[in-house]
Task: inverse folding
């Protein structure tokens, strides 16, 4: 068994084989469509200009922001527009 194939034949594939379904909230268990992008950075492991992105629905925006702010990771929150997704998404 190869750990790179555990997700199926295309799991270890390139960018073109990634899931391209609708963008959903990053809160565990939430499948609601994304309305916000929360940009964050862990200064212990990321360079200062690096931004990771969590997506959020309207209901979970405050919870996710508070989670990141409490840990000193939150940088900013911006409206989510599907055409603006980046390679740094989710993390």
Result:
């Amino acid at each position: 068994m190869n750990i790179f194939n555990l997700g199926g034949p295309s799991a270890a594939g390139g960018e073109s084989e990634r899931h391209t379904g609708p963008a959903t909230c990053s809160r565990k268990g939430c499948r609601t469509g994304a309305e916000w992008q929360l940009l964050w950075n862990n200064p212990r492991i990321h360079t200062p200009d690096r931004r990771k992105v969590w997506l959020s629905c309207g209901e979970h925006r405050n919870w996710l922001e508070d989670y990141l702010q409490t840990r000193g990771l939150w940088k900013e929150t911006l409206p989510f527009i599907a055409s603006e997704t980046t390679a740094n998404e989710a993390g």
